[in-house]
Structure formats: structure tokens, C-alpha cells
């Protein structure tokens, strides 16, 4: 028998064995591929267990601020004044955030920080330096604003900061530059139309804001989740981790601009008066900033700022200040 014939017989035998094995031992069925993943929670998001007091700005006449004097010409700040110290440093240091769309946010194309609050901050810098760009922005969360002023980490805070009597014990405020109303942000067709619909629901707010206490006083059964930024609240709403967000309408409108599937609903739950935060003991800077705000109001620049950034909220007008000497 030749080697070629032996090889052929071996191949045939091997094929027969393979066929018998396949017939006797079929391969087990394989389940279809699958994958699961937990929805990530934004860093710093926590469930709030304590109850905060409702805002109390009416109790101490908190909206009254120091009367502005005549603004000095730019670059000619009064000697030994807070403004002279800022001028000598060469820049105004402003605390704000970059997650409050419409008020202060980073433009994803240019990288610039823009918004209504940013224009106000630049107006203060212009009044000191005759240059709105001699400014340094330091990003703060809502809960960091007061400590940053007290530590001298920033000169002013321009960050949708509401005036309250409690806060006035720790920092000084300019006259109000904007009046907001607290409302609710929810998914469209979620069945949430007003505060009554938030009973037992999960509601998000940024840590350190006055809207938490007001909502708890209106809807005690609401389950509050706090986050570091308003953008985190929007992410949690989109992922179904909360049912609603509640804060000032201007902030909510900025969130709604980023997602067509959410909407601002319900009547006003209360007013919030935004002002520039300033460290105590710097009354000259309070009067100076009030002069800048007064100039913006009387020159029509405030209205132009509103029309550029906040016209989505409908007609708006600058608040009328109340001063004391």
C-alpha cells in the first residue's frame, strides 16, 4: 500500500470521527450579547434631610442699600479706597460660575465666559480701569460665595445671589440689579404643573440657594436633592433621577434652552432679588457698585443687556433701587 493511499485513508477516518463527534455532542446554545450599566450620579449630588428656613428679605428691609455717590472717572480712584487697592492690583477679581446659562456660562465655541452677570461684572471693571477686560473670574459654587467674600478670595460676587436677612449678617449687598421669580422645571407631559404636583416628588436644587427653604415651606413632603451646579440638576432630570428642578425662572430658562424636552411651569413661588455680594467693611465699594448699577439703569444699558440675554422671559425692567445714607 503506497503512502498516498495510507494518507487518504487516514483523512477519511478522521472526517468520520469528526462527524460522529458533532452528531453526538452538539454545541450549547449561546445567549445573545447584552450589556447593563448604572446611570451615573453627578459628583456631589446628595439627598437633603434637613429643613432650611424660607427666605426672609422682608423682615429686615434687606433690599435697602447704601446711596451711591458720584462715580469718579476711570483710573482715578479715591486714595486709600477699596477701588484704589483693586486698581493698584491691576484687575478686578469676580466670583461667579460657568454653569448658569444666560447669566454666566462658557461659550463652547470661543471659550469666553458670557452672560448677563458677566456684563455687569465687566461694567464694574470698566468703571475702575476704563477697560472691561482687566478682570479675573474665579468659579464658585453657590455654597462657596459667602466664604469667598469673607476670606478676600474675590472682590465681588456676581452670581445670581439673592439678598436675605441671614446673608446680610455675613456680607454686604449692592442694590438689587434683577428680580427673579421661583418656578419649576419639569419634563414635558410629566404631569407636573404647579407646586402641588411636587408632593412626594424628587426635586433638585443647587446647594446653598434660598429656593430650597421656600420650596420646603410650600411642599414639605418634597424630597430634595442638592448638587454642586444647576447643570447637574438638568442632567439628573434628563436621566430620570429626579422629577423636577425648582429655582429662579431666569436660571430655569437657561436650563430649558439646553433641552427642548423640558419646560418651565407653574406660577411664581416667590421673588428673589439678585445683588452684587461684597465683603463687610467695604462700604465705599458698595456705593461704587451702586453707582455703576444706577448708570446702567439710567443710560439704557441695563435694558440692552436684558434684551440680549433674558428676552426669552418676556418684557423686563430694572428694579427701582431704595437707598439709605
From TrEMBL:
- The answer to whether the entry has keyword Magnesium is no
The residues forming a coiled coil are none
What Pfam families does the database record attribute to this sequence? SBP_bac_3 (PF00497)
Residue ranges annotated for the Solute-binding protein family 3/N-terminal domain, each copy included: 91-313
Source superkingdom:
Bacteria
**Segments of this protein annotated with the region Disordered:** 27-59
**May I ask which residue range the UniProt record assigns to the signal sequence?**
1-23
Task: Quote the biased-composition stretches of kind Low complexity, using this chain's numbering.
Answer: 35-47
Task: Please give the InterPro entries that the UniProt record associates with this protein.
Answer: Bact_solute-bind_prot3, Solute-binding_3/MltF_N
Q: What CDD domains does this protein map onto?
A: PBP2_GluB
Keywords (A to Z) from UniProt: Signal, Transport
Q: Which family is this protein grouped under? A: Belongs to the bacterial solute-binding protein 3 family.
Q: Which PANTHER family match?
A: ABC TRANSPORTER GLUTAMINE-BINDING PROTEIN GLNH (PTHR30085:SF6), AMINO ACID ABC TRANSPORTER PERMEASE (PTHR30085)
Q: What is this protein called?
A: Transporter substrate-binding domain-containing protein
What is the species of this protein? Gordonia pseudamarae
Amino acid at each position: 500500500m503506497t503512502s498516498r493511499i495510507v494518507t487518504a485513508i487516514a483523512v477519511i477516518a478522521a472526517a468520520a470521527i469528526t462527524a460522529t463527534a458533532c452528531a453526538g455532542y452538539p454545541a450549547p446554545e449561546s445567549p445573545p450579547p447584552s450589556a447593563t450599566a448604572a446611570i451615573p450620579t453627578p459628583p456631589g449630588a446628595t439627598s437633603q434631610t434637613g429643613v432650611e428656613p424660607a427666605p426672609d428679605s422682608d423682615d429686615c428691609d434687606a433690599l435697602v442699600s447704601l446711596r451711591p455717590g458720584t462715580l469718579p472717572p476711570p483710573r482715578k480712584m479715591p486714595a486709600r479706597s477699596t477701588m484704589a487697592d483693586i486698581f493698584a492690583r491691576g484687575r478686578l477679581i469676580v466670583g461667579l460660575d460657568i454653569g448658569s446659562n444666560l447669566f454666566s456660562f462658557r461659550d463652547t465655541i470661543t471659550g469666553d465666559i458670557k452672560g448677563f452677570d458677566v456684563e455687569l461684572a465687566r461694567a464694574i471693571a470698566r468703571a475702575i480701569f476704563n477697560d472691561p477686560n482687566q478682570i479675573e473670574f474665579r468659579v464658585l459654587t453657590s455654597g462657596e460665595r459667602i466664604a469667598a467674600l469673607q476670606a478676600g478670595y474675590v472682590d465681588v460676587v456676581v452670581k445670581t445671589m439673592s439678598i436675605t436677612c441671614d446673608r446680610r449678617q455675613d456680607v454686604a449687598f449692592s442694590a438689587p440689579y434683577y428680580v427673579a421669580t421661583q418656578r419649576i422645571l419639569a419634563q414635558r407631559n410629566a404631569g407636573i404643573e404647579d407646586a402641588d404636583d411636587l408632593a412626594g416628588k424628587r426635586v433638585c436644587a443647587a446647594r446653598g440657594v434660598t429656593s430650597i427653604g421656600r420650596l420646603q415651606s410650600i411642599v414639605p413632603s418634597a424630597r430634595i436633592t442638592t448638587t454642586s451646579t444647576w447643570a447637574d440638576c438638568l442632567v439628573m432630570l434628563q436621566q430620570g433621577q429626579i422629577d423636577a428642578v425648582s429655582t429662579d425662572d431666569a436660571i430655569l430658562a437657561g436650563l430649558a434652552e439646553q433641552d427642548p424636552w423640558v419646560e418651565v411651569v407653574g406660577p411664581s413661588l416667590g421673588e428673589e432679588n439678585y445683588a452684587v455680594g461684597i465683603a463687610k467693611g467695604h462700604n465705599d465699594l458698595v456705593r461704587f457698585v451702586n453707582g455703576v448699577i444706577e448708570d446702567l439703569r439710567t443710560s439704557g444699558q441695563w435694558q440692552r443687556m436684558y434684551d440680549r440675554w433674558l428676552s426669552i422671559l418676556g418684557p423686563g425692567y430694572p428694579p427701582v433701587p431704595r437707598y439709605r445714607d
